[in-house]
Amino acid sequence: MSDAADLLAALDIERLDVATLGENTFRAAHLDQDHGVVFGGQLLAQSIIAATRVVPDMELLSLHTVFSRGGDFAQPLDITVEILQSGRSMSSVAVTTRCSGMW
User: Fold this and answer.
1) Beta carbons of 76 and 28 less than 8 angstroms apart
2) Which of 4, 39, 61, 64 shows the greatest Cβ crowding within 10 Å of its Cβ?
């Protein structure tokens, strides 16, 4: 595939069945950059996509992140979005990304 197609494929996250991992949970692939680790920019983009799918009527105004551990490139990513506050004009969500089966 081309670089653009690879990027779009990595950003095409899929919603998992509620019975599988829980509500508002997505599974994402990795963009192969030949580094052997997950690229942080990819994680940010996938987090934004997941959040906007859970609260689609809201606009992203602020983003804060912590990369607490390196991701295992061999495992798919599980992205969970928790709605902390939801109102008419503003919502706050927490997005957690984990390698499947870890932590």
Assistant:
1) yes
2) 39
Instruction: Please count the structural domains in the chain.
Output: 1
Q: Name the pTM for this structure.
A: 0.78
- Assign residue 70 the CATH number of its domain: 3.10.129.10
pLDDT in tens, 53-72: 899 999 999 999 888 877 77
Residue 20 lies in domain: 3-99
Contacts within 8 Å (CB) and 24+ apart, 27-34: 27/76, 27/77, 27/78, 27/79, 27/100, 28/76, 28/77, 28/78, 28/79, 28/97, 29/76, 29/77, 30/71, 30/73, 30/76, 30/77, 31/6, 31/7, 32/6
pLDDT value at 7 more than 70: no
